[in-house]
Design goal:
0% strand, 67% helix, 116 residues
Length: 116
């Protein structure tokens, strides 16, 4: 607090200096009364600024890259990935394999002299 007292006007403390500064600011800036058109005008300014940003080249390029990325993802997911997938190693079920294996070779596995 001593520093504010030393830098300011003699006899004024920091709070008085701040009050004086605010008073000077109020005198310099005109008081704007809020009218019935305050909010519509404010939103008009916001929409005008949004319209300027939406037509910028950056937004246009962002949309182009987004569409290109989505198209590439769809093509890869729908066409390329299924084409490059390896087919399953075995096309038959376990029962089909056992049925195919049941043949005349079973006799060779049985001990001599036994029949089914």
């Amino acid at each position: 607090m001593e520093r504010m007292d030393q830098d300011g006007v003699p006899g004024m403390n920091g709070g008085d200096q701040l009050d004086a500064l605010f008073a000077q600011y109020r005198e310099a800036c005109a008081d704007r009364e809020a009218s019935a058109h305050f909010m519509p005008q404010l939103w008009g300014k916001i929409e005008a600024r949004r319209g300027a940003v939406s037509s910028s080249w950056f937004r246009l390029w962002a949309e182009v890259w987004l569409v290109a990325t989505l198209t590439l993802a769809i093509v890869m997911g729908g066409i390329l990935i299924p084409r490059f997938e390896n087919p399953p190693a075995y096309q038959a079920s376990y029962v089909d394999v056992l049925t195919a294996a049941d043949s005349a070779n079973d006799v060779a596995v049985l001990p001599v002299g036994e029949t089914q």
